[in-house]
Every structure is written in structure tokens, then in C-alpha cells.
Design goal:
73% of the residues lie in helices and 4% in strands. By secondary structure, it is mostly helical.
Length: 404
């Protein structure tokens, strides 16, 4: 069984690296040809940025592979033996699992630093200072350790209390995911981004009129001071139920016209009207259920091969180690469905925008490509495994735009 898992993880890592290599080769060849959507200089530079990101992903993949081998080979046992002196079993399990999470987080920091202060700095995205980056990572790590400890305790209690632990653990974790989706904007406002109510009364009125037309009830329209960290453009509808918020990045307000901004929000309202958020949560739930069902039926021989007792902390660490594999396998299915959602949301965004709705949405999409330095072309196999949105060229074609 252990050999099967090692083979599975090896196939996952090398397949993901292969996909990145194919994407790099495709972009390096295509960026020297006729530019699409961008002028020649921006097109070439966007290609360079995409290639640099994929090269970083390949290095990250190799490191993840070595970490997996290390954790399965000796790391879990070493971590457990390091806390042999803890007498309370619940505390011991929490400390071991959070130690695993802490060590992985620390190992990932150099990649995060390189992406932020080398790649993003070179291509004009990074607006953050080193002090801000350190503060963000410290806050993120502390909240992860505190809240994560509570989650680990909950799973430990379930595992030690029920023979159907895998099912009740799924219910518990799925409930956590729903809560995170509900309160994510509030959480970010508390620790990371400063959210302020939209001051432009005319724009605020137009946004609320747009929301009224789709029955979207929000707790307000807010502007995020995202420009203090990053130059990219973005907006999101966060939360569920009465906790929903419309959050606009200040960079988006600076770059898009009012009509273009309303077209983008119309697209997001299309997702709301079609229930896409709930569908996505349901797909995530199905993936988690499959993973928990699998772990609920692992043979005892696996733990014997690992040289580890069948303790809750071992189950939880193995779960976290193997979750990316299932995510990679499920992504093509989820991506295919989610790309369909995007086309439907584009259609509704165009409809909400009136006679010029499709034109304004198309203009907004092209500005997003330009400002975010997004290379508009990708290898088909990369789209298959990674894209949750259709390629922007395909979206523009659906909107009736002649990309030439």
C-alpha cells in the first residue's frame, strides 16, 4: 500500500511538472509571433512573466516531492518522538499536527519571498514593503496556528469518539469551509486589507441598482486598499447570506471606467444569480467527501509499513499530504464545469449592461489582461489541468468581439 501511494504521488508531481514544461515551451514559442490583445512589447513581457512563474512552480514541485518523501520516510515519526513528553493525548496530537503545518509554512517562505520581491518586483506588481510582508506572514501564521489548533482538536475528538469518524470529520470540515466563505471579507478586513465604504455616491447608487435587478442583498459596497501590496486589478463578492459584501480593489477603480466596472460587477452578479458559489462549495464538498471516505478505509497495513501507530495525528498529516493529489485529479472536472459558469456569467453581465454591455465587458477584460500582464494564450493541456476561467480570447469571441 505504501508503494502504491509513493507511485501515485510521484506520478502526480511529474505530471504537474510536465504540464508546466509544456506551457513554458508553448509560451516561449508563441511570444515571438504576432501579438494578441496586447501590443508587441507587453505581449512579450507578459510571456516572460508567465514563463518565470511556471519555472518557480517546477522548483516548488520538486521541493514538495522531496518533502513528501521526507515526511513519509522519517519526518512524521521524528516529529512525534520530539513531543514524547506530552502526557495529554489531545494536546500531543494538536502540537504534532500544528508542528507539521508550521514547518511546511516556514519552508514555503523563500518561495513566497522570491515571488513577491523578485518576480513581482521585476514586473511592476509588488507595492509591499519587507516590513509589511513580514507582518502579513506573521499574522497569517499565528491565525493559522490558533484557529488550526481548534480544528485539529475537533477532528481528534471525532476520531476518538466515533467509528464513523471519517464521515463526521467530513461534516465538521465542510462546515468550517462554509463559515470561512461567510466571514472571509470580515476576516481580511480585521487583519490584512482596510475596507472602507465606497465614497462615490453616484457609482454606489448604480451598483446597488444593479444588485437590486438580480435580487442580490449585500451588507455594503467596500473599497480595499489593495494597492499598498499589489498593482493587480480585482474585485470580489465575499460572504454568504446576509454577510455578503461587494469588495472593489482601489486599483480597479483607478483603471476601469464606470461602465466597464459595472460590466465586471454584472458578471459577478451573474454567478450569484446562477448559484455558482453554492455549486462550487458543493463540488468542493464532493471532493472532500471522497477524500475522507478513502481515508476512512485505509488498511492497517499501511501504518505498519510506515512504522507508525494508527494515531489521529498520523491520519491528519497523511490527509494533508495527499489532498493536493486528489485536487489535481479533480481539477479538470471542476475546471470544465467552472468554465461553463464563466460563459453564463459573461452573458448575464452583458445583459445587465444594456445595449453596450458586451462591449464594456470586453473592454474591461482586455484592460484586466493588460494591467495584470496576463499572457492571453496557453497550451491546451495547461488549460485542461489549471484553468477555472475560459481563455480570455474565447470569452471575447463569445461576446462577439473580433480579436484581430
Amino acid at each position: 500500500m505504501l508503494l502504491d501511494i509513493m507511485i501515485l504521488y510521484t506520478v502526480y508531481i511529474f505530471l504537474s511538472i510536465y504540464v508546466s514544461v509544456m506551457q513554458i515551451g508553448f509560451i516561449n514559442q508563441r511570444k515571438t509571433q504576432d501579438a494578441v490583445l496586447l501590443d508587441a512589447d507587453k505581449f512579450y513581457k507578459a510571456g516572460d512573466y508567465a514563463v518565470a512563474k511556471e519555472k518557480l512552480a517546477i522548483v516548488n514541485g520538486f521541493v514538495d516531492y522531496l518533502l513528501f518523501i521526507a515526511w513519509v520516510g522519517f519526518g512524521i515519526g521524528y516529529l512525534a518522538n520530539s513531543f514524547y513528553f506530552l502526557q495529554d493525548d489531545a494536546i500531543k496530537n494538536i502540537v504534532i499536527v500544528m508542528g507539521f503545518i508550521f514547518m511546511n509554512s516556514v519552508i514555503s517562505l523563500p518561495f513566497s519571498y522570491y515571488e513577491k520581491f523578485v518576480l513581482d518586483q521585476e514586473y511592476g506588481f509588488n507595492k509591499s514593503t519587507l516590513a509589511q510582508w513580514i507582518k502579513d506572514n506573521v499574522v497569517s501564521l499565528l491565525t493559522t496556528l490558533i484557529l488550526g489548533s481548534l480544528v485539529v482538536w475537533g477532528v481528534y475528538f471525532i476520531i476518538t469518539s466515533s467509528k464513523l469518524w471519517w464521515f463526521w470529520s467530513f461534516v465538521f470540515i465542510f462546515g468550517i469551509i462554509v463559515l470561512v466563505n461567510m466571514f472571509y471579507p470580515t476576516f481580511r478586513a480585521m487583519f490584512f486589507d482596510k475596507l472602507t465604504p465606497l465614497q462615490d455616491e453616484e457609482l454606489d447608487a448604480k451598483i446597488k441598482e444593479l444588485m437590486d435587478r438580480t435580487g442580490f442583498v449585500s451588507s455594503g459596497v467596500f473599497v480595499s486598499d489593495a494597492s499598498k501590496r499589489d498593482a493587480r486589478l480585482n474585485a470580489y463578492f465575499g460572504g454568504l447570506g446576509k454577510a455578503k459584501r461587494v469588495v472593489l480593489f482601489d486599483t480597479l477603480l483607478q483603471k476601469l471606467s464606470t461602465k466597464e466596472l459595472l460590466a465586471v460587477l454584472g458578471h459577478e452578479l451573474g454567478h450569484f444569480a446562477h448559484g455558482d458559489v453554492y455549486k462550487n462549495i458543493a463540488m468542493m464538498g464532493a471532493m472532500l467527501f471522497a477524500m475522507f471516505a478513502l481515508f476512512g478505509n485505509l488498511p492497517e497495513s499501511l501504518y505498519i509499513e510506515l512504522g507508525l501507530a494508527q494515531e489521529p495525528y498520523v491520519m491528519m498529516i497523511l490527509f494533508m499530504l495527499l489532498l493536493p493529489v486528489l485536487g489535481f485529479v479533480m481539477m479538470p472536472v471542476m475546471g470544465y464545469v467552472m468554465r461553463k459558469y464563466e460563459y453564463a456569467a459573461d452573458a448575464m453581465g452583458s445583459e445587465l449592461g444594456g445595449a453596450s454591455g458586451s462591449i464594456e465587458l470586453a473592454n474591461a477584460l482586455m484592460k484586466l489582461v493588460s494591467e495584470n500582464k496576463s499572457f492571453p494564450l496557453s497550451h491546451p493541456i495547461y488549460i485542461f489541468f489549471h484553468y477555472t476561467h475560459p481563455p480570455v480570447i474565447e470569452r471575447l469571441k463569445e461576446l462577439g468581439v473580433d480579436i484581430k
